[in-house]
Amino acid sequence: MNNPQSLPYRPNVGIALFNPQGLLFVAQRADLPGEIWQCPQGGIDEQEDPLKAAQRELYEETGCKQATLLGEKKDWVSYDLPPALIGRALGGKYRGQTQKWYVFGFDGHDHDIRLDLHTPPEFSAWEWVPPQELLQRNLGFKRELYEKLLPELEHIYQAASKDWIRTKRA
């Protein structure tokens, strides 16, 4: 195998979906052992706008079309796959992923969440949790990523949530 450092990062989006109570949508991966939890995320297709990719991935993975964009993380963040997954995960073509993160407010009802729209399903279970509770879950090799991301994603939500909630009530 080539030197992993010579492999590119796969362009990807991450989605932090908050409900009006400030709880974060988290889901359990269906394809990984050990009850690994994460936020929705997925690859950006060639020539696809990252925001459009985020909206598409949110729908594919959760069935959610009832979401308002509240903000985005200014910078892209990258992470490397663990050595055992390089050459196997992500089609074997990438060393990891570089992500653009978006923060959305959930405008729907819990019954609007559908994990069965994507075949095979990405997730097997989901919950609304206080954002910092995600760090108490098994995040696999993405723990460090979430430790760095969560404070900024929460800040983006807090900065936009008052106007969003006021608009929802109007």
Q: Can you offer a commentary on this structure?
A:
The chain has 170 residues and is an alpha+beta fold. It has one domain: Nucleoside Triphosphate Pyrophosphohydrolase (Alpha-Beta Complex), CATH 3.90.79. Helices cover 24% and strands 29% of the residues. Strands 1, 4, 5, 6 and 7 form a 5-stranded mixed sheet that branches. The chain has a 3-stranded antiparallel sheet with strand order 3-2-8, with no helix packed on it. Strand 2 and strand 3 form a beta hairpin. The longest helix has 27 residues. The mean pLDDT is 92. Belongs to the Nudix hydrolase family. RppH subfamily. Keywords: Hydrolase. It is an enzyme of class 3 (hydrolase). One of its GO terms (biological process) is nucleoside phosphate metabolic process.
Protein traits:
alpha+beta, Nucleoside Triphosphate Pyrophosphohydrolase, three-stranded antiparallel sheet, 170 residues, 2 helices, five-stranded mixed sheet
Specify Rg, calculated over alpha carbons: 16 Å
Tell me the name of the CATH class. Alpha Beta
Q: SS-based structural class?
A: alpha+beta
Largest sheet: number of strands, sense, barrel closure: 5 strands, mixed
Could you say how many structural domains there are in total? 1
CATH architectural label: Alpha-Beta Complex
Average pLDDT number:
92
What is the beta-strand fraction? 25-35%
Count every beta strand, where a strand is a DSSP E run of 2 or more residues.
8
Element-level helix/strand string: EEEEHEEEEH
